[in-house]
TrEMBL record:
Keywords of the record: NAD, Oxidoreductase
GO MF terms, alphabetically ordered: saccharopine dehydrogenase (NAD+, L-lysine-forming) activity
Name of the featured protein: Alanine dehydrogenase
Domain of life: Bacteria
Binding site for NAD(+): 339-342
Organism encoding this protein: Formosa sediminum
Residue stretches making up the Alanine dehydrogenase/pyridine nucleotide transhydrogenase N-terminal domain: 4-136
Transmembrane portions of the chain: none
Family annotation (PANTHER family): ALPHA-AMINOADIPIC SEMIALDEHYDE SYNTHASE, MITOCHONDRIAL, SACCHAROPINE DEHYDROGENASE
GO BP: any one term: lysine biosynthetic process
Amino acid sequence: MKFAIIKERKSPLDRRVVFSPKTLLQIKQQYPAVKFKVEKSKIRIFPDEVYKLTGFLVLKHVADSDVFIGVNEVSIDSLVPNKSYFFFSHTLKKQPYNRELLRALLDKKITFYDHEAITDIKQNRLIGFGRYAGIVGAYNGFRAWGLKYDSWELPKANMLSDQKALHAHLKKIQLPNIKILLTGNGNVAKGALEILDVLKIPKVSIEDYVSKTFTTPVYCNINTLDYNTRMDGKAKSIKDFFKHPERYASTFNQFAEHTDLLITGHFFSNGAPALYTEADVKSARFKIKVVADISCDLNGALASTIRTSTIEHPFYGYNPQTGLETDFKAPDAIAVMAINNLSSELASDASIWFGQMFLKHVIPAFFNNDADGILERARMTHDGKLTPRFAYLQDYVDGKE
Ligand SMILES: NC(=O)c1ccc[n+]([C@@H]2O[C@H](COP(=O)([O-])OP(=O)(O)OC[C@H]3O[C@@H](n4cnc5c(N)ncnc54)[C@H](O)[C@@H]3O)[C@@H](O)[C@H]2O)c1
């Protein structure tokens, strides 16, 4: 089996990679039969030279490989027909901007595995950059707060060597007695929790969060059923919510009235009610001043997330009265951070983490006949067709939705 690490071609340029030179070496030691080539790249966080010194071929052309592994969407013109690919296609939620890419994967008879679809039998995701997105996103939330209120100046995460350096800077800040709300319970939320732990911020219960004042900063972590209720008053359940989000209404305002800094890590499905709307934000009771929107959905989940932001320009302001963008330091503005490639800011740590997960969960499947069904579950396209698990995307492919 011949594998290739392909170069990232998406703009803005992304320095992440699935395997660091060290992880590749680990794979080689565990599976001596495996052959890896690395496509030349000027931007990858680990330079070509380091791969060469570790004993890997770095080449301009790697098209003769069997399995191509990348991070972001691969440009349609560089897809090699009849091969296998792993990358994030961003098509699972029927994102319109990647419909053509999915069509090309089908037309070119590519066997395509989406990193997002690499799950265990219970559908829990096994690999992803979520943890590092959570770490960097929460850090950026505190960075935004410091800049908005001229309280401290944290450096940009991508200027720091690694997570340790980021922790060292965070430990120097003196937080006021703010209330921080974190949504979600997946990898992003867990990454964000690591940052709240570094800051030694006490966690409080929902009851205390919405009813008490505190003499220190505190945080509360909520999940889907804490801020959604069934409109018909019937008993709610997470399974029911996943199946019928349209039956639910948001009760998020009970939290917005008590929150200064919101850090999001929830999963927002198509059809779910917005956490807060334009009308909610206009209310005098709406208190949130800084939003680190790591979930970063642009389909109205949070009224204040009107666009994504970039690593270069991470913050913008949202004027709650006009619904328009403004300076994030303006007194009435909600400061928004909505970067959708957050883990790129800590590209080295994030790549090492991702590669270790891939080595643990995916590489064995190539050598044990996919005993745990990892490849089968992640396979989206094969021989020009969507696999049964992804048949729900057929209308999207056909342009019917
Ligand atoms: N900004 C960024 O750079 C960045 C990076 C990674 C992830 N994200 C986003 O952050 C969000 C969370 O990612 P994660 O890695 O923590 O995900 P995850 O897969 O680790 O966890 C998602 C959680 O959501 C739950 N869930 C699944 N389907 C759901 C549904 N239909 N409705 C409500 N909850 C559901 C799951 O049970 C799980 O607890 C996602 O929307 C993801 O796109 C953003």
